[in-house]
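Troubleshooting: if your tokenizer reports a length mismatch, compare against these two reference records.
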Amino acid sequence: MTTLSVEIKPQQQTGLVTTPELKKYYDELRPVFCPYLNDQIHFTPDGWYHLHHYVDRKPRSDRMIRVKIRLFRKYAVGTLRKAHTLQEHRASLHPVGNASRDGLHTTKLFQYFAFEDVDLRNRISYRIIIRKIGDGQHHFWSIIPTWRVETKNIPKSIGRIELEDE
């Protein structure tokens, strides 16, 4: 009998972006109670994956991963614990699983909840996105920096990304 040996290579990422310590920190996070949702927010592998990849599974740039991880470590848990106001809510049906014999897909309601916060001392604003699929649990989905430029010391927003896409 012959055995086949296959080497599985990890995704190409620099040590500065994702380290075993960061992954361990994320994995060991306990659920956080969010007052607005009156529910626990869980930190699932989906959220970790989404910090590193876009919805279409394309990897994010190292720069964007660094920004998201830095924001996550510094702000996510604290902001969710004190979130009393929802800035945006979106809901839409999406197909899940494989199509049945008749070609139809089962659909579930995907809900996205956005909470914004500002760190005035560091002049940073960001959004935390929480996702809920069907009757499942609320889980961390993403943290999005609100990109800004300043012209003559007047902040000007230069755009937003859709909640589902980010």
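Reference record two:
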Amino acid sequence: MSQTARTIDVREPHQLRPIMDVGKTFGLLESELISYGPYKAKIHLDALKRLENRPDGRLVVVTAIEVAISYLEGDVSNTIIVTLLLILAIVKFSTVALYFMHLRFETKTLGWIAVTPLAIATLLVFVLLPDGFAVLKTTDASKKAAATTPAKH
């Protein structure tokens, strides 16, 4: 292969679709889209109320909120942005798991199978956490005692 970059032939140029058509594809009404030209728009928050029971609509709205939050960089603390994005990621994960993996319609037994190990792991963390702090205090105390004792020659 030569050192020069190869050109890639594009057989069909990519055509942008009008944003109103894209919104209709996702089940949004024209009144819920605030157009900023033919190819971009904002989604009105009324769409969230109307689509909250549809899992695919919920994913569209949560993704739009995530994009809006990502534009807050510089105006809001990064800690707040990361926290909000993590919460929205959990909402998206649970929506995908419950509806698209059909876990919402499974029996309660499957739910208990998933929740029980999580409860046990949480319990173990809280049971073992005090021991970790005790070891840390003991280690710090022995270091201080060794540092204050004069060296014998």
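Descriptive notes for reference record two:
- Residues 108-148 form the longest helix (41 residues).
- The longest strand covers residues 33-35.
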